[in-house]
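Why do we care about 3D structure at all? Because function follows from shape, and shape follows, mostly, from sequence. That is the central idea of this module. The next example makes it concrete: a single protein chain, its amino acid sequence, and then its structure expressed as tokens.
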Amino acid sequence: MKNIKEIRSETPGCAHKNHLNSAGSSLVPKLVIDAILDYLKLETITGGYETAALKAKEISGFYKSLATMLNCEPRNIAHASSATEAYSKALSSIPFKKGDVILTTDYDYASNQIAFLFLQKKIGVKLVRAANNTLGGVNFDSVKKLIKKEDPKLVAITHVPTNTGLVQPVEEIGTLCRKKEILYLVDACQSAGQMSLDVEKIQCDFLSATFRKFMRGPRGIGFLYVSNRVLKNNFEPIFPDLHGAVWTKDNEYKLTKDAKRFEYWEKPYALMLGAKASVDYALGIGLENIERRVTHLANYTRQKLSKIENVRVLDEGEKLCGIVTAWNKNWNLSALQKHLRELNINVSVAPFNAAVIDFEKKGVDGALRISPHYFNTEREIDELFEAIINFK
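And the structure:
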């Protein structure tokens, strides 16, 4: 792994902020901004279409770099404007009918839960949530039993929930789904960029993520992995356009053969080059190295928080990651966040409606969310600790 001083020197924001909010939107390396600005400057003097044509090879690198990161082929990658758009397009391509079962967990992201409830209301699918184990996280045996009992059309798992340090066993669940040929959708929004992702090991049919979080890329862009099985079976998202399909006759169109059927023609090419740069930067450091560093800093944060009177560290699960959540009955979370920002410390607050089931079970109305990344230091966490202690 690169020297921490070098990494921080390549991250302009480190000179201005103690940024502990990478689960929200991380600080980008300078080369990401340079890639975006260089493209926009060229576009300004060359023209939009013309610049896209000149930079076609570099733009195609967006797909190649992600394919390297995920252990797949470029044909399996689709651009999206966000993780939510990617996730929604994947859901929209599944031919649900009334009575079909979606199997998920209590910990899945709020937007995903809302999408499931929409499908329940609109189509009449049945939503089933697997039980939890005593340490936190989904109970693997419960998933196994429910797959046998309910024969779900789709299993949907959020790899790393937004509201807790939990890491779900997506590879083990993927093995169950593959044996039964059940569609498998993984939300990797919070895991992409802080740990390795291998779609061959996960055995998923779809995997969605964004760039603004642990990937350290720009806002306004995400991606979707689509398996060959999905492509072979001609799944298509709702409302494909002339990029995802070809209009062949008056009343006929044909889908593109690759994952680009999940894209629209108009794309932010400058952001795509910035996103590619963020992938290459992470690969250069090594995702295994990143995970070790992030896990260390998160554990250090938990240790410091546990020493503060009346603070509950809310994280649970057999394996924990770089998201740390805490609660104190005496905290006004909005006021605490404001206090920290005034000290140039960036953190996030997870409101109750971001994790209704989990927070209700824990008896809290929200949580302080701290998410260090590999560019952070123990000293920055010590500064956070002192600032929280002095909060009145």
